[in-house]
Write a structure and sequence with these properties.
The chain has about 260 residues and is an alpha+beta fold. Helix content is about 50%, strand content about 5%. It has a 4-stranded mixed β-sheet with strand order 2-1-3-4, covered by helices on one side. It starts with a strand and ends with a helix.
């Protein structure tokens, strides 16, 4: 039995849902309410001591870290393979995955929290925010401290936009040789980056790929796959749940 502890708006949860949908796997939907901090309860921390989503529980055994979960699912359920069979191609795909985890997956959190989630805490003073919000988090304490109740600094936001622009540029170059990042084959690399690109669109940051027609076409192809609508169920986008604070022209111009 597959149980997925996830949140609809979590980009890391979205990539795992995409893998499950691509493979046509049945799973038990275990929603975690992040706004209510259910991911910080003792019961959830017993499953995932990092206090983040998603967590996959397969026959009672928890698997954590979204990209690890994606590779695990592809190994355990090899039907509809999402990893190249050739070792060299497989290594190239994993290199993409490491880059995508280190750069856009991390970078997209900054505008996501700055434009939407920080608004939940804007009435707290700095001391209360650190004690009641930031320091409660096993893995994201320093991320929250850097954000503060008023959001991230312009420098932090601009740096994240620069990393997202770097990602788009690398994707554009790779897509010259095929419809997908690995050429003709749709792989885990495409899945891992999809939530970052979709979140950019949701936050009003799609101008980052204005001069990258290959990325725009790739995003359209991803959205046309049957798995996309399955993974992005109603309420999966931040803009469906809370107002999105637009970035200032100065911040956008500084990237």
């Amino acid at each position: 039995m597959l149980e997925l502890f996830h949140a609809p708006t979590s980009t890391c949860s979205q990539k795992v849902r995409l893998v499950l949908a691509e493979k046509g796997l049945d799973w038990v939907d275990c929603r975690v309410n992040l706004a209510a901090e259910e991911h910080l309860t003792p019961a959830y921390l017993a499953l995932n001591p990092n206090g983040v989503v998603p967590t996959l529980v397969h026959d009672g055994k928890p698997i954590v870290d979204s990209s690890v979960i994606c590779e695990y699912l592809d190994e355990v359920f090899p039907q509809v393979p999402l990893t190249p069979a050739d070792p060299v191609e497989r290594a190239a795909m994993r290199a993409w995955m490491r880059f995508l985890e280190e750069v856009p997956t991390a970078a997209i959190r900054v505008p996501s929290f700055h434009q939407v989630i920080a608004r939940r805490y804007e009435k707290l003073d700095d001391k209360a925010f650190v004690a009641e919000v930031a320091d409660m988090r096993p893995l994201r304490k320093h991320f929250y401290r850097r954000m503060g109740p008023q959001g991230f600094s312009s420098a932090d936001v601009s740096a994240s936009l620069d990393e997202l622009a770097l990602t788009v540029a690398r994707m554009e170059k790779a897509l010259e040789r095929g419809p997908w990042l690995m050429g003709a084959r749709f792989t885990l690399a495409d899945i891992v980056v999809t939530p970052s690109i979709d979140r950019m669109s949701d936050l009003g940051l799609s101008s980052i790929w204005d001069k990258a027609p290959g990325v725009a076409d790739w995003y359209a192809r991803v959205r046309a796959r049957p798995s996309f609508d399955v993974a992005y169920m109603k309420g999966s986008r931040l803009s469906e749940r809370e107002p999105v604070r637009p970035l200032s022209k100065e911040t956008m111009d500084a990237r």
